[in-house]
Structures are given as C-alpha cells and as structure tokens.
Design brief:
Helix content: under 10%
Largest sheet: 9 strands, antiparallel
Number of strands: 24
Structural class: mainly beta
Distance between the termini: 56 Å
Mean pLDDT: 94
CATH architecture: Sandwich
CATH superfamily: Jelly Rolls
Radius of gyration: 18 Å
Number of domains: 1
Shape: globular
Length: about 290
C-alpha cells in the first residue's frame, strides 16, 4: 500500500428495491452517500424465484450518470424510451450512459416468469463528469462471449471494464475504470493494476480473503481510497469470489435525488421539470 492508501470495510446492507427484489448494498447508506466516482452498488440476489414470482424495476427515469448491469446467473429483459430493448443473460453486461435522460425498464424475462429460476447479478451507478451529464444517452451491451476471460491456475476473471493480465474489455469508459468479476481458489492470489489515484471497491460475493492485508467476508465491501497501483487480493481456505471496481474520482459536487444525479439543486429541479413535461419520452409498447 502507499502511504495515502486507506481501507474501510463496510457491511452490504440488505434492502428491497424496484418492485420488491432483495439487494445487498454497501452504499449509498447512512454515513456513506457515495464513493467517488461510484454512486451505488447493488448485488441483486442470489434468489431462486418460483414461477410467476420474479420481480424487477418497471419504468423509471435516469439522468446524469451511468448504470451498469452485470448478470452472473439468470436473465433480465430491458427497454427504454430511445427504442433500445433486449435481454441480458448470464455473463452479459449492459453499460448504459443515461446522460441527458431516459426512461428505462428492467424486468424478468418471460421464461423466468413462466418457469421460475435463479437470479444473481449487480447494478452499479457510475457518476458522470459535469461536462458529460447532459450528453446523448448511449448503450454498450456485450454478451459474455465478447468479454475477455482470464482463466489461469488458481484464478478466473471476467473483464467487464478496463484491463487485466494484458486483456482489455471492449467497453469504452468516460473516465479510467476497472471492473472485474474475480474468483480465486484456496491459496492463490491476484494483483490487479488500476489507474493512478483511483478509488477502488472490492465487494465480496462469496468465501473470504484479504485485500491489501485486510480481511473481507461475504456481504462485506472494502472501500479503498488512493488505491495502490497494483491491488492485491488473496483467498482464504474456502476460496474467494469478488467484484472489483476502480475509478478515478471526479472531485465534483453531487446533488442527488432518486434517479437524478447532477451537480446542484437547480439542475435536479430542471430534471423534474423535464420529466413532467415529457422530455424524457416514453417506452413505446405495442
């Protein structure tokens, strides 16, 4: 670790979101409104739905940030007011830059509603810099087959964003960002290079291990300020599965209300005005 590196271990609190699905969230919670540049991390599930019981997030607006949906198991169908629609399945990622604003829907697939099934994944909110908050919305959606995978003795990683072991994700990020789904077997470790001055988050999905010598267990997250250039993660006897995030902090003011994240209160009010006036559009359904 560098002299300025600081690590804080926080619990991922269990909460209910959307139409009633359970998430584990290290932030935002009381005392931790964000971890620049990341605004929210929700681990969705894992949950096994009976037929007809699956829930999602019906039509809702976004402005001023990016949403990243990564599915570990299961599938989710999405559509928005710009006419985008599709299905995100196991190992797939959707990186949506909401920018000036969209109406978005994320719901269980017809197959899961009909037959039931397991759902497990993440949604992450990444802040946009001031000069990008009103950019044209865009989607980057890649199937698991298009995301690089590192599979070596003792460790496996899917590279969602950034680079690891010489392999790079096709996702284009607006600030230097690393995002990995990492599994480490008993007795093994990994060193993850991140951009200088990054803040990093290691969210424990299963098992336990150490992050820069700090112990971490399931449903805990390590918040690492001024991450070292190589972030070291090691597994305990039961192995360790984590989601790793790292990004350059923006150091900009945050004004936040529900699905809107801007720089000041006037911009939040303008977002509500635009929503009421129909400027976000609506999802066209037949």
């Amino acid at each position: 670790m560098t002299e300025s590196t600081a690590i804080r271990v926080v619990p991922a609190q269990q909460l209910t979101e959307g139409a009633g699905f359970i998430v584990h969230r290290p932030f935002p919670v009381a005392g931790i409104p964000a971890f620049d540049p990341f605004l929210l991390i929700d681990e969705m599930g894992p949950v096994d739905y009976a037929p007809g019981a699956a829930v999602g997030a019906p039509d809702h607006p976004h402005r001023g940030f990016e949403t990243v949906t990564y599915i570990i198991e299961g599938a989710m169908q999405h559509e928005d007011s710009y006419g985008h629609r599709g299905v995100i399945r196991s190992g797939d990622v959707q990186w949506m830059t909401a920018g000036a604003g969209v109406i978005h829907s994320e719901m269980p697939t017809e197959e899961i509603m009909r037959s039931g099934g397991r759902m497990h994944g993440f949604q992450i909110w990444v802040n946009l810099p001031r000069d990008k908050k009103m950019m044209q919305p865009r989607y980057q959606e890649y199937p698991a087959s298009a995301l690089p995978v590192v599979n070596e003795p003792g460790r496996w990683a899917r590279i969602i964003a950034g680079e690891f072991e010489g392999r790079r994700s096709p996702i284009e990020t607006l600030v230097p960002t690393t995002m990995l789904h990492l599994r480490i077997e008993r007795g093994s470790n990994a060193a993850i290079a991140v951009a200088p001055e990054s803040n990093a988050v290691v969210h424990a999905i299963g098992g336990s291990g150490n992050v820069e010598g700090t112990h971490l267990e399931e449903h805990q997250a390590a918040l690492i300020s001024h991450s070292p250039a190589a972030l070291h993660i090691a597994a305990d006897d039961q192995g360790f599965e984590v989601l790793v995030l790292a990004g350059i902090p923006l150091h900009e003011p945050i004004a936040r209300y529900g699905p809107f994240v801007m720089n000041n209160a006037d911009e939040i009010e303008k977002a509500f005005d635009d929503l009421r006036a129909g400027r976000f559009g609506e999802i066209a359904r037949t």
